[in-house]
Amino acid sequence: MGASPSVPQKSIHEFTVKDARGQDVDLSIYKGKVLLVVNVASKCGFTDSNYTQLTDLYNKYKDKGFEILAFPCNQFLKQEPGTSEDAQQFACTRYKAEYPIFQKVRVNGPNTAPVYRFLKASKCGIMGSGIKWNFTKFLVNKEGQVIGRYSPTTSPLSIEADIKKALEIK
């Protein structure tokens, strides 16, 4: 129990996901970039601080090979109740997010999005592979491997040193 099913993929770049409008996005377009993958929600107690800090990090490092991939998720107390486009509009309007907001996904259970099966199998959390709440963060290196996993209570700015290291910035 709690074990993540094995996944054949060796890199996040092998996945195709859907954007907020339902169009396919091949994640191989992010080869050579450091990624921070986050399950987001608009009505969570962590929303304001996380979105604010994610936008700050993105603006600081986007020209240095850094990208944030945000996946809205409604699995935790239904804190992302609208459509994927609603989630995108919320993040872009209220928090000036310029990074991609994808289609809503499930991060746990039998219908877990394949990209999240990969992330969880790559890096277990303190209590196993399951995602415990909104704003769990995965740091992915330029080759597409998960190099860090951070809890919802870990602020995005507190992992800036890890991002800089992955970007090879002194």
TrEMBL record:
**Species:** Manihot esculenta
Record bears the keyword Oxidoreductase: yes
Instruction: State the organism's lineage.
Output: Eukaryota, Viridiplantae, Streptophyta, Embryophyta, Tracheophyta
List the GO molecular function terms. Answer: peroxidase activity
Record-level GO BP terms: response to oxidative stress
Please identify the protein, giving its name as recorded: Glutathione peroxidase
> Which residues catalyse the reaction?
C44
Please name the PANTHER family in this protein's record. GLUTATHIONE PEROXIDASE, GLUTATHIONE PEROXIDASE 5-RELATED
Tell me where on the tree of life, at the top rank, the source sits: Eukaryota
| Boundaries of every Thioredoxin domain copy | 6-168
Q: Does the keyword Oxidoreductase apply?
A: yes
